[in-house]
Every structure is written in structure tokens, then in C-alpha cells.
Amino acid sequence: MTEIVNLSLGELLANLHAGDLSSREITQAYLDQIDRLNPALHAFLTLTPEAALSQADEADQRINTWRSDPGEDLPPLTGVPLAVKDVLCVKDIRCTCGSRILENFVPPFDATAVARLREAGVVILGKTNTDEFAMGSSTENSAYGPTHNPWNLDHVPGGSSGGSAAAVAASLAPVALGTDTGGSVRQPASFCGVTGIKPTYGRISRYGLVAYGSSFDVVGAFGRSAAELVPLFKIMAGPDPQDATTGDVPLPDFNLTLIDPGDSLTGLRIGVPDEYFIEGIQGEVEEGVRRAIEELETLGAQIKPVSLPYTEQALPVYYLIAPAEASANLARFDGIRYGPRVPADEMWDIFRHTRGDKFGSEVKRRIMLGTYALSAGYYDAYYGQAQKVRTLIKRDFERAFEGVDLIAAPVAPSTAFRIGEHGDDPLSMYLEDIFTLPANLAGVPGIAFPVGFDQKGLPIGMQLMGPHFQEEQLFLAAHAYQLITDWHTRRPDLNGAS
Amino acid sequence: MKLTLEEVEHIAELARLRLSEEEKERYGEQLSDILDYAARLQAVDTTGISPMSSVLPARGKLRPDEPRPGLSLKDALRNAPDIEQDQFRVPPVLE
Question: What residues form DSSP beta bridges with A149?
């Protein structure tokens, strides 16, 4: 039999339901794999093996009851291990957000996304590494040290959800949660050769997600294939009274297993925007993505050129609005209600000293940038103008989606870069996000998945973007592609890493 | 455009961040670079374009105004660095 940690989510569930594997055996196999590889990868910041095994035992009891009486209800993910990015609150497990300012914060509640998955039966393995408060594109901004890319330990896993992406790539977890504010699910999925879904803004509740850029933040997920992400997405999606941006949008009840691999994409119109194939993009990335688009065509998709003329404005727009929102959101970290306090005789000094000492370099930079963009005299020129151009970027997508169902593009201009490559040059790091930011600015969903490898053996990713609330089409197209290719089944060789 | 030391200090004070002299200098340069880059937005014609307020259609839906349980006092205080008599403790604010 295939090693437990290499079984797909569907195979895990089939084995659990047949009684061939227990959740305890599966959970223990993942904990062993984490013991062996996490020291080299640093994908997890916090592990909760005892709680995980006790959740696994509870799952096994439910499965046994269900097996003796299949009339009983069995939640859909009972017994399946899950890793959670350390910006999502899990009750009674430390949530650091990759920051010293929350080094001892233990949430008294579950994020809605986590609570729904728990009700669905998952076993939580622990919390994964992230750029501090999800601000970064490499996971190097974590106050607890970087995560390493499982395909080459000298390279970054991408970010900010780099811990979750690396955990899935190295089989430290079958599935994992991330968040995507400016590309933080899609880009690490691309760098680590796994599949990642960034849902429509407002599709999944943000309650219990520690806020960074509230008009962009969305909870997403990683798996080895699109098919594995569907059950997680369906469980997490839907209105939540705790997040007013989640709406009563009906959730389509789709089932990927019904798809016929032959001409599964007949009638689907996929747009290819010139603005995403620009000078400076790594040749192998462009070739890999163009080859994947041809493969989608062989499945029946109709490929059409589209134009998103305001694409190049996405970077300056995002890096004004997101820091502005961050500067307001992070005002709550003041050394009074949670986190460590740097003592001072005067209360204002507690704020100044705690925030100055405990926030990391990139977080302070974005707070400063956002504070400036919102400050008197500069608001209209920076923040106001950025919000107007954001409207134009959203219109780009609306216009494009009048003629196509989905848009195909590279996820990032290159494969995973080396740890330390961008040094202390924030602008060059921000440029890594040029292809992922537009979807966040428009609030549209996207899915990233592997479409090849470069000569260094690093994964190449492609993203598909769709209109608001059309995640079903994204899953369908990615799944159809994965039925005729095997890039998503490749695993890194980590024998030397343990 | 280059931010002056005074401007950097003013922003840091608005954000309640104590910065070292080295940080002030570094942030001054880096923020100037980023703002120079962002200045390209000024060239975009936005005549008649409304600033975005939400990517989704505004719903303005309110939930019923009904009391519901919230965090317990114990849970609300459990992460605080300094508490006394079930309250957050801070230095005197008024002289």
C-alpha cells in the first residue's frame, strides 16, 4: 500500500470509511513525518500532537459508530488531519501571526472557517508559519525564522502562507488553510507545486482571521489537487452573522467526480491577457503556462485573447490601500489587552515602546506607509486616487468576463527565488506580486496549480481567475487539467533533509 | 521626493511607533522609493471615476438587534499582560 502520507484526501476518506485505516494511524503518520522533516523545513510554528491524537480518537469512535449503523450521520471530513496558517484563530492554540507582539496570544475562540471544519470532523495538527501578519511574499518576514521550500531548501516557499504550502508539498499535512490578501495562497502554491484556492472576497467568513487588509483578506486552502480542495471550500463557504461581507450567495452543489476527462471543457471560454506575459518574466514560466493553456484547449476550451489594461497599476494601488488598512487594523496591538507589554511609566509610552519593539521591520514599514497615505494633506493624492484606480482595475475584469468565462495567467514572474535574494529591498519584493494583486483588488476568485518544473527542478504555477462567486468553474477547469497531467502528483525528494 | 527626518518622525508618532535613529533613516529612504513608484498613479485619468468602497455590491444588511452571549470576562482578560480586579491595568492616564 502507498505510504499513508502520500494518500489523497479521497483515498484517506475511503480507507477511514472502510475501516482499513484509523484516524489515529493517519494522524500518527503525519506527526511522524512532521517530526522527521519540520526541523529542516520549519513549516509549522506550533504543533499540538496530543490534542490531535485525542481528536483522532474521537473521530475513530464516530466512524466505528457509523460503520455499525450507517444510518448515523458522519461529518464529511471526520478523521482527516489539517494544518492551519497561524493567522487564523484556533481556540486554545497559540496564534502568533508570525509576530513577537502576539508571541503568547491564545485565542479564546475558533475562526468561523476553523469552527466549520471542526464540525466537519477534521483533526488539527498545528499552526503553520507565515510572514508577520501575512505581510510578505516569501515567509522570510516571520519573527520565528523562514520556512524552506521542500523542492530546494535554499529557496523560499513563497508567502505569506508559505508554511501551509510547504507542509502540503512535503506531505506534513494532506490539506492546509491559508489566507490570500495579495496572492498569499496562490503564490506559495505555485512556488511549492501544490494547488491553492483563493475564493471570492466575502465567500468565506473572515471572523477569527487576524485582519491585515480587510477589503482584500480571504481564507483559502491548499491541497495536492483541485478535487481535494472542493470539500474544504464547500464546508467553509457561506454567510456568517459575524462577518457582514459574507452574503447570501447560493453555493452551487457541484461534484467533480462526475466529470468526463475526454472533452470536459467544451464550451468553456478562457481568456489570455497579454498584460501577464510581459518582458522580464522567466522564459520557462511563460512556456509552461502557454503549454498548459494549449492542454486546456485540447480539452475543448476555447482560448481567446483578452485585455486588462490597468494591470500595471495594481502594484501601486495595492501597496497604498493594503498598508492603509493595515495601519488601522494593527492599531489594536498596544500592549494592553493581549501580547507582551514593554513597561513604561506613561501609557502613551507603553504603546510606542511595545509597538516599536515587538513589530518586525516589514510590518512597521507598512504601518508607516499606510499612515502616511491616510494622513492629512496626502489622503486625496494617494489613498483617494488609489481607490479610484482600483475601480478601473475591477472594471477591467468585468469587461473581460463579458467575453470569457475564465482568465489564465502565470502566478508569479519566476519560480521560487532564493532565501535572502531580495535582501532589504522592499520594492523589489513587492514586484513579486504583480500577477496576483489584481484578483484581490477586484475581489475575484483564483486557483493556482502546478503546470511543470524549471531546469532547477522548481515548480511552475498557473492561475485561473473567474468572475465573482464562480469558484465552481475554477475547480472544474483545474480538475480537468489534473486528470490529463501528473505535475500535481510529483513530490519533492526529502530523504536528505531529515 | 525624499521624506525628511521630521516627516518620518511625524508619521511614526501618528502610528505610535518608537523607532531607532537607524530605522528612521532606513524607512525614510524606503518609503520615499515606494512613494516615488506609487506616484505613477497620478498620471492615470480618473475623471468621473468613483473611488471603490467595496468590491461586492453594497448590501447594507443589518442583523436583528438581539442580545447574544459574547466572550466571558475570564476569556476577555486571559491574554492581558496586566490585570487587576477583573480589569486591564495601565499607568495613571490623568494627573
Answer: A152
Q: What domains appear along chain A, each with residue ranges and CATH number? A: 4-309+394-489 (3.90.1300.10)
Q: Angle, nearest 10°, between helix axes A23-41 and A9-18? A: 150
**ipTM (interface predicted TM):** 0.96
Kindly report the pTM of this predicted structure: 0.97
| Nearest CB to B38 within list A320, A353, A388 | A320
What are the structural domains, with CATH classification, of chain B? 5-43 (1.10.20.60)
CA distance B18 to chain A (A): 4
Q: How confident is the model at residue A56 (pLDDT cuts 50, 70, 90)?
A: very high
Residues of chain A positioned with their CB less than 8 A from the CB of B44: 310, 313, 385, 388-389, 392
- The three grid cell numbers given for residue A242, joined into one nine-digit string: 459575524
Mean pLDDT across A252-265 = 72
pLDDT value of position A497: 80
